[in-house]
């Protein structure tokens, strides 16, 4: 079976003492503070840019002309930053014993500064003056960048934000500093800066239309006590994050903390050299603290997809989509290995995610057991806990906000929600693994869950209909965790050698007869039976939809195979559909996906 290197997270439930719980909250608070600090810096810089643009627009310039004028206004400052940053990088490499950067082409108007800094480096070569120059260079670069940020010429990234914070961290709290920063690990701050950078990128992608879903505004500030989390890193060559036995986890700055679960599986992988711990992310959920240990693991996979470069270099990928994306600039994609016998026996399965049942399958989960049902019922976790949750929420509403009783009541509500979340995740993990390990292809619809769960309340002028029934349906759909199931299928199918096939939105699987393929636009989706006026077939609606999903997936797979798969390479040139054998395998035949 071919093997590859993957990133896997191992989640453990922590069992901290009161002192350790306080330390975890302190670390999470530092990460939240860093996130808010970075978001504030980015928002201020972008607002300064927006003010400049508005001034030019009021002066009669067009949008494009205003942007070009702002770029021209900051050109001189930007060039100075480039020159000083080149100076700083060269000194850093020299002090590290590495060759310096090649001489830079001086920007227009900066020739004298380039010559001055080059002469200073030459005069200080081999002396202690080099470190002084490096300190001076760092301070100058940070000061110039701060000036550019305040003027709106550029927006700070995570590295820039970290540099700004290092300049201000020893200032008093009233002046925006964080003099308490030595009480926590510095990675709490850097992880907060990184998360703010990701949130900012998501907002920009949404603004430009590159991100699906509704448009977003500025990233919001995080409130104390909500979504407490932080990440810690270490040098993998000198690891600090490690398991101490099977029941304790060691983290930098926090020491050894007991865990409820057994860490035997990860510990043995590390002992055998099959796993290297990269980082740990600690999160609070309800009354529990969880540690998610990210490790780089050597894992066997039934199927791998290789991008074969034009020069013969092979790069393995777990999913075919990743390999085909890498081959867009040249090369071809080859398959290594084949699905397991159980997956080949299951073949292609269509999964209809619905409201009455969590999933209706075109084939049972266990093909060897004819009695195995093809309908997966809802666990109805929220409905079963609704009475308990309502009682806890009513008790919380009777308390004065901010009081001791209110905090205890809030903790009870949070605990109920966390129990529901954990049980739902456990159920979906089991279902997704059965689908990924039991079939070669898992086909699902591309559901727009935001549109499906939109309220029917309407407006005062146009009130909605059946609002109560629609709210009950929305709660039912959200309780099922359909989006979470799709995410789990996406990575588990790659892990276990199967493929996830997502149909195009608008595929008429509900209103089409699976037998005669005629569409019935007047079909009522709320009816449990599907009646075809053309052939007279009467079947369960979910069974009909699952069969249509299988047919649509087969058409999509044939299109992929003829357009991007074995018969053509990324340059749309003919390529032989070779399948590379895994070690110890016999000759392989192409599996019939139809």
Description of the structure:
The chain is α+β, with helices and mostly antiparallel strands and about 600 residues long. Helix content is about 45%, strand content about 15%. It has a 5-stranded mixed sheet. Strands 1-7-6-2 form a 4-stranded antiparallel sheet. Strands 9-8-10-18 form a 4-stranded mixed sheet, with helices on one face. A hairpin with a 5-residue loop joins strand 11 (about 350-355) and strand 12. Helix 1 (about 20-60) crosses helix 2 and helix 3 packs antiparallel against helix 5. The longest helix is centred in the N-terminal third of the chain and has 41 residues, at about 20-60. About 25% of the residues are buried. Mean pLDDT is about 85; it is low at about 565-594.
TL;DR?
The chain is of the alpha+beta class. It is 45% helix and 16% strand. The model is unreliable at 563-594 (pLDDT under 50).
Shape: globular
How many β-strand stretches?
A: 18
- Strand order, sheet with most strands: 13-12-11-14-15
Question: How large is the share of residues in beta strands?
Answer: 15-25%
Classify the oligomer. Answer: single chain
What average pLDDT do the residues reach? 87
Largest β-sheet summary:
5 strands, mixed
Helix content class: 40-55%
Q: From the alpha carbons, calculate the radius of gyration and give it in angstroms.
A: 29 Å
Structural class: alpha+beta
SSE topology sketch:
Layout lengths: L2 E11 L4 H41 L4 H11 L1 H21 L15 H13 L5 H23 L6 H11 L18 H22 L20 E5 L8 E3 L3 E4 L3 E4 L5 H8 L3 E11 L2 E13 L2 E6 L5 E4 L2 H7 L5 E6 L3 H6 L1 E6 L5 E3 L13 E2 L4 H4 L1 H12 L6 H35 L2 E4 L4 H4 L14 H14 L1 H14 L3 E4 L26 E3 L6 E3 H23 L15 E2 L14
Parallel strand pairs: 10-18, 11-14, 14-15
Antiparallel strand pairs: 1-7, 2-6, 3-4, 4-5, 6-7, 8-9, 8-10, 11-12, 12-13, 16-17
């Amino acid at each position: 079976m071919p093997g590859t290197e993957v990133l896997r997270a191992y989640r453990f439930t922590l069992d901290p003492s009161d002192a350790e719980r306080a330390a975890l909250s302190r670390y999470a608070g530092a990460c939240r503070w860093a996130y808010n600090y970075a978001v504030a810096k980015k928002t201020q810089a972008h607002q300064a840019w927006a003010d400049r643009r508005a001034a030019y627009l009021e002066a009669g310039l067009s949008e494009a002309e205003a942007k070009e004028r702002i770029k021209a206004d900051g050109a001189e400052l930007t060039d100075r930053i480039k020159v000083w940053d080149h100076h700083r990088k060269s000194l850093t490499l020299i002090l590290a014993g590495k060759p310096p950067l090649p001489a830079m082409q001086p920007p227009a108007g900066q020739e004298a500064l380039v010559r001055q800094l080059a002469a200073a480096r030459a005069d200080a070569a081999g002396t202690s003056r080099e470190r002084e120059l490096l300190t001076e260079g760092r301070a100058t670069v940070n000061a110039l960048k701060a000036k550019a940020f305040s003027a709106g010429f550029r927006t700070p990234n995570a590295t820039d934000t970290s540099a700004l914070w290092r300049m201000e961290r020893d200032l008093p709290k009233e002046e925006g500093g964080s003099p308490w920063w030595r009480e926590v690990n510095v990675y709490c701050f850097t992880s907060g800066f990184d998360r703010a950078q990701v949130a900012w990128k998501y907002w920009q992608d949404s603004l430009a239309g590159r991100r699906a879903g509704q448009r977003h505004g500025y990233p919001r500030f995080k409130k104390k006590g909500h979504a407490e989390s932080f990440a810690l890193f270490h040098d993998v060559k000198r690891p600090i994050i490690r398991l101490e036995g099977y029941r304790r986890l060691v983290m930098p700055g926090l020491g050894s903390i007991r865990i409820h679960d057994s860490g035997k599986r990860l510990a043995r992988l590390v002992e055998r050299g099959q796993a290297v711990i990269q980082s740990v992310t600690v999160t609070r959920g309800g009354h529990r603290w969880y540690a998610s240990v990210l490790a780089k693991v050597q894992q066997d996979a039934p199927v791998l997809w290789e991008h074969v470069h034009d020069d013969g270099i092979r790069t393995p990928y777990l999913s075919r989509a990743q390999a085909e994306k890498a081959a867009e600039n040249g090369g071809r994609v080859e398959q290594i290995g084949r699905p397991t016998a159980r997956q080949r026996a299951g073949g292609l399965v269509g999964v209809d995610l619905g409201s009455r049942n969590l999933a209706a399958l075109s084939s049972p989960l266990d093909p060897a057991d004819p009695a195995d049902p093809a309908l997966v019922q809802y666990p109805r976790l929220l409905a079963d806990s609704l009475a308990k949750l309502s009682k806890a929420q009513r008790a919380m509403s009777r308390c004065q906000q901010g009081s001791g009783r209110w905090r205890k009541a809030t903790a009870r509500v949070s605990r109920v929600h966390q129990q529901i979340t954990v049980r739902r995740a456990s159920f979906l993990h089991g279902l997704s693994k059965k689908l990924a390990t039991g079939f070669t292809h898992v086909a699902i619809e591309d559901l727009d869950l935001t549109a499906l769960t939109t309220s029917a309340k309407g407006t005062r002028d146009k009130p909605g209909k059946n609002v109560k029934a629609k709210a009950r349906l929305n709660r039912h759909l959200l309780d099922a965790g359909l989006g979470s199931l799709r995410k789990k299928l996406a990575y588990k199918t790659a892990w276990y050698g199967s493929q996830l096939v997502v149909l195009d939105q608008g595929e008429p699987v509900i209103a089409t007869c699976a037998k005669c393929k005629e569409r019935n636009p007047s079909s009522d989706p709320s009816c449990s039976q599907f009646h075809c006026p053309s052939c007279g077939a009467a079947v369960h609606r979910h069974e009909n939809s699952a069969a249509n999903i299988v047919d649509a997936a087969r058409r999509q797979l044939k299109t992929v195979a003829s357009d991007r798969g074995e018969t053509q390479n990324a340059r749309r040139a003919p390529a032989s559909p070779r399948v590379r054998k895994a070690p110890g395998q016999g000759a392989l035949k192409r599996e019939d996906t139809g």
